[in-house]
């Protein structure tokens, strides 16, 4: 008589434990699956430059600057442009900030009323196979 009662109690306890475990696991699993489905193909690119507004990927740091200069792809032209830009900024007492991919998420790449230099067009790479060194320009990203 006592054995069937014990077995029933054990089955009940096992059932309750299973329900509690299933409830504990189900919630995060449902959350992860729902998020994965909702955000399929979700990608937010870095905001494009405004005429004098800059922003980084955080989208929390929109800042008005004096000018945004995108360097040309060719190195000689870029160096020439940088020289001119730095000379002018010094004469006008303006801060110069350098922007790469703008993924640093804290407004690091711009100063209010300053001059921003967009380095992204400079993305060439060259391999020195004698010294096993890869030179990568400042605008190079994994993707491009
Ligand atoms: C979703 C996400 C995930 C991330 N995960 C990681 C991670 O796993 N590990 C990690 O380390 N980081 C991570 N980061 C941070 C981010 O990858 C780095 O901050 C980023 O690589 C910096 O490079 P950038 O070209 O975006 O620099 P920017 O944000 O453009 O610039 C960063 C700083 O460097 C200066 N700078 C830029 N270019 C030059 C240059 N040519 N010469 C001198 N100074 C320059 C800028 O003035 C600025 O102060 C993540 C960021 C995001 C948005």
What does this entry look like structurally?
The chain has 144 residues and is of the alpha/beta class. It is 38% helix and 17% strand. Strand 6 (125-128) and strand 7 form a beta hairpin. The chain is elongated and about 95 Å long. 9% of the residues are buried. The mean pLDDT is 91. The chain binds flavin-adenine dinucleotide. Flavin-adenine dinucleotide (FAD) binds at residues 57, 97-105, 108-109, 119, 138.
Short description:
This protein has 144 residues and is of the alpha/beta class.
Which descriptors would you attach to this protein?
144 residues; alpha/beta; Uridine Diphospho-n-acetylenolpyruvylglucosamine Reductase, domain 2; 2 domains; 3-stranded parallel sheet; two-stranded antiparallel sheet; 2 helices; elongated; binds flavin-adenine dinucleotide
């Amino acid at each position: 008589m006592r054995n069937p009662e014990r077995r029933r109690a054990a089955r009940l306890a096992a059932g309750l434990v299973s329900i509690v475990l299933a409830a504990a696991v189900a919630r995060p699993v449902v959350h992860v699956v729902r998020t994965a489905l909702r955000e399929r193909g979700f990608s937010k690119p870095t905001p494009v430059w405004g005429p004098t507004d800059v922003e980084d990927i955080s989208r929390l740091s929109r800042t008005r600057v004096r000018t945004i200069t995108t360097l040309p792809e060719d190195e000689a032209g870029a160096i020439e442009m940088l020289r001119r830009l730095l000379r002018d900024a010094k004469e006008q007492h303006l801060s110069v900030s350098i922007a790469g991919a703008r993924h640093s998420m804290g407004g690091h790449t711009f100063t209010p009323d300053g001059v921003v230099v967009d380095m992204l067009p400079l993305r060439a790479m060259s391999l020195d196979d004698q010294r096993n060194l890869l030179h990568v320009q400042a605008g190079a990203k994994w993707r491009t």
